[in-house]
Design a protein that fits this description.
Layout lengths: L2 H9 L4 H22 L2 H18 L8 H20 L8 H9 L9 H19 L3 H11 L5 H8 L3 H21 L5
């Protein structure tokens, strides 16, 4: 079923929208959730919560790209669940590793000033990435948005893991330099 038809089912409040969404996007959403949570049961819970969030948000939202909208919901829900589950214990996941890699470039955003500047920071990162090659953009987004392991990014781009690591390292250094030049305190 096409995305427009699935969105129309949500707007009609037809429960078939959820089953159609699951049939089309479940594997994709499971991958995103599992990259963050590193636990199949928690990933399943997160994806189920994504279906509920989609049901509750359409209407009024009418996403232009359903897959991106669902990915955004899944990421948010999975990150919230990750934070909740790891307050008392620390566990390795692609989310934790990705955050650690970016820690030198971007601060945590816990003060009011940092929270207010988050939009400007996101815009600046977008400007920087748009000036990079498609390969660099794909590697950076794969690693830090979709939280894909370096091995999967290398396979997708058709390069070695070492090349991806080097590319990401250079991109982080360039991003840090760019953000400092733009006046962001890191």
């Amino acid at each position: 079923m096409e995305d427009e038809q699935i969105i129309a089912l949500y707007w009609e409040r037809n429960e078939r929208a959820i089953s159609e969404t699951e049939a089309k996007y479940d594997r994709y959403l499971q991958k995103i959730a599992n990259n963050i949570l590193n636990n199949l049961d928690d990933s399943r819970e997160s994806v189920n919560d994504t279906y509920l969030a989609a049901w509750q948000s359409m209407p009024p939202h009418k996403p232009g790209v359903l897959s991106a909208y669902l990915a955004k919901l899944t990421r948010r829900i999975s990150i919230d669940l990750f934070r909740y589950r790891t307050r008392a214990k620390r566990q390795a996941s692609e989310y934790a590793v990705s955050l650690e890699e970016l820690s030198d470039c971007v601060s945590g955003g816990s003060t009011p000033e940092e929270i207010i500047n988050a939009k400007a920071l996101a815009d600046a990162i977008g400007v920087y990435l748009r000036a990079q090659s498609q390969q660099t953009q794909a590697a950076f987004l794969g690693r830090y948005y979709f939280l894909d392991p370096v091995k999967e990014i290398a396979a997708y781009l058709g390069v070695t893991e070492s090349k991806v690591k080097t590319l990401l390292h250079r991109t982080r250094l360039g991003l840090k330099e760019y953000l400092e030049k733009e006046g962001f305190c890191l």
